[in-house]
UniProtKB/TrEMBL annotation:
Source organism (scientific name): Flavobacterium aciduliphilum
Protein name listed in UniProt: DNA repair protein RecN
Pfam families on file: SMC_N
Function per UniProt: May be involved in recombinational repair of damaged DNA.
Keyword field: ATP-binding, Coiled coil, DNA damage, DNA repair, Nucleotide-binding
Coiled coil feature spans: 328-362
Domain RecF/RecN/SMC N-terminal as annotated: residue spans: 2-507
Length: 550
């Protein structure tokens, strides 16, 4: 439960601190006195977003600190999981700096807002006026049913399985679309692939074929040129070889004269050897330089196939054509692979669908077991709240599709008067009836929640007199197991609190600020009398206030 709240430099609050006890406490004050500021400050310390407009003095930081006794609520695991020091008396502090930056601390350990919000959900339930409208939502109605059924773990498991199911289903659709697209292209791809395979392409083949064609095309010119070259090299009278031999003979005789002639002789000898080798190569070339019309035709045809494929695929090399062939091969394999993957996914989805169906049936059965219990409990509480003829008919229908929490749709049908037909809650319940129904639900749910504190912000909207007194009795009963706060304008509710806090404004010379104090017995009489009769308190109002308090 919350035991202390300290606020500095927030809205109309310069500085205040207040201690709270367990049980049922009421908070009163004139409209605009600052009750909503208190809730706003508490909301910030519980993880709500903040902005600079919250600062009373824009040059100083705002600090909000709340103390909670959490000894009996099994929260040690949360602290361990988030690496926060645990203490039975836990302190949460929120700071808003003039720069706009905010900081949050749990037991002096810095934490982010998500962690703070996670903890706040198990510390305090703040019921504001607009939340009464949540009664109309299926989400709220299911939360009530499921909380009483106590199968949150089952709902969580279903939610996890559903996410996996949807992910697999999305993946299946993606693969099916890809398969459909690939199948549309498959026939064309198969034709192109077959064309490339029939070409029997090899790396470097184009260059070899181009050399063969070039050589065979100019074979006569090659033969003529080689013949002339051989004549120049090998002629017995004027050939290069004969001349080199004569020069060699001359220098051979001169080698004993000096090293210079010896060196020249060796160079001439090398030239002679090279020239002799060149002659043999020319003879070899001349012998091979023969026309081969069949090879020329075959090579030219293959080159034409290559050129045609390069033009078709807009590439310049055989290697690029081979890459295209490999890609097409992979696409053809991909179709087969996709079909296998789709079959495996479909099987997995069928298994997941079966699991979800089984979980949904258990959830549906649990909910149906709880319905009569909830209907009876609601009727009992509403009877205490002056709605003796109120009846509920809660319908849960299993559908053929998966929702986030099962396969059910729910309808809260309500009848306020004896003999009247059931109708949808949102269509036939008045504002005052909705307030009482929400209080009844909160009182029932509180028995199933391990929650330290609940705060009702004007849940008495639309009711007055004896009904308000009965609502206060319900809240007082709730406070036997949970700390309960009621922010109210009704004296019938204010009189039932074990502690009574008043929020009020104080006007100083240059500014206005909100303050809060706990009222003693005499001050409570005056406050409740004022709530009954206004600023001019009559003796009758004082007497009525004392009667209410007694």
């Amino acid at each position: 439960m919350i035991t202390y709240l300290g606020i500095e430099n927030f809205a109309l609050i310069e500085k205040l601190s207040v201690k709270f006890s367990d049980g049922f406490s009421v908070i009163t004050g004139e409209t605009g006195a600052g009750k909503s500021i208190l809730l706003g400050a508490l909301g910030l310390v519980l993880g709500k977003r903040a902005d600079l407009s919250s600062l009373k003095n824009k040059d100083e930081k705002c600090v909000i600190e709340a103390h909670f006794n959490i000894k009996n609520y099994g929260l040690q695991t949360f602290f361990d999981e988030n690496d926060i020091d645990y203490d039975d008396d836990t302190i949460i502090r929120r700071e808003i700096l003039p720069s706009g930056k905010t900081r949050a601390f749990i037991n002096d350990t810095p934490v982010n807002l998500n962690t703070l919000q996670d903890l706040s959900q198990v510390l305090v339930d703040i019921h504001s006026q607009h939340q009464t409208q949540e009664l109309f939502s299926e989400g709220m109605q299911f939360r009530v049913i499921d909380k009483i059924a106590g199968h949150e773990d089952l709902i969580q498991n279903f939610s996890v399985q559903l996410k996996l199911f949807k992910k697999c289903h999305s993946e299946l659709l993606d693969k099916q679309n890809r398969l459909h697209q690939n199948q549309k292209e498959q026939e064309y791809n198969a034709f192109i692939l077959n064309e490339l395979k029939e070409a029997n392409l090899k790396t470097g083949e184009q260059e070899d074929l181009e050399r063969i064609v070039e050589k065979l095309t100019h074979v006569e010119f090659i033969k003529e040129s080689i013949g002339r070259s051989l004549q120049l090299v090998s002629d017995e009278n004027f050939g290069i070889l004969q001349n080199l031999k004569e020069i060699k003979s001359v220098f051979q005789k001169m080698t004993p004269i000096s090293q210079e002639f010896q060196d020249m002789f060796e160079r001439i000898n090398s030239l002679l050897i090279e020239c002799d080798d060149m002659e043999r190569e020319l003879i070899k070339i001349a012998d091979s330089a023969s026309s081969d019309p069949e090879l020329l035709q075959k090579s030219s045809d293959k080159l034409q196939v290559i050129y045609s494929l390069q033009k078709k695929h807009q590439v310049a090399t055989v290697d690029e054509l081979l890459r295209i062939q490999l890609e097409l091969d992979e696409k053809m394999i991909s179709v087969s692979s996709l079909q296998e993957e789709i079959a495996a996914l479909q099987e997995s989805i069928n298994i997941q669908n079966q699991k979800l169906d089984e979980l949904a049936k258990i959830i549906h059965a649990n909910r149906n077991k709880i319905v009569p219990i909830l209907q009876n409990q609601l009727t009992d509480v509403l009877n205490k709240l002056g709605m003796e003829n109120a009846r509920f008919n809660i319908l849960i229908e299993e559908k053929n599709e998966f929702f986030y929490n099962g396969k059910d749709e729910i309808e809260f049908l309500f009848s306020a008067n004896k003999g009247s037909n059931f109708g949808l809650l949102k269509k036939i319940a008045s504002g005052g009836e909705l307030s009482r129904i929400m209080l009844a639900i909160k009182s029932i749910i509180s028995k199933y929640l391990n929650l330290p504190t609940i705060i009702f912000d004007e849940i008495d909207t639309g009711v007055s007199g004896e009904i308000a007194s009965k609502m206060a009795d319900v809240m007082k009963d709730m406070s036997a197991n949970i700390q309960v706060f009621a922010i109210t304008h009704l004296p019938q509710i204010a009189s039932k609190g074990a502690e009574h806090f008043k929020v009020f404004k104080v006007i100083h010379e240059h500014h206005t600020q909100s303050e809060i104090k706990v009222l003693n017995s005499e001050e409570r009489v005056v406050e409740i009398a004022q709530m009954l009769s206004g600023s001019k308190i009559s003796e009758a109002a004082l007497m009525h206030a004392k009667e209410l308090l007694n």
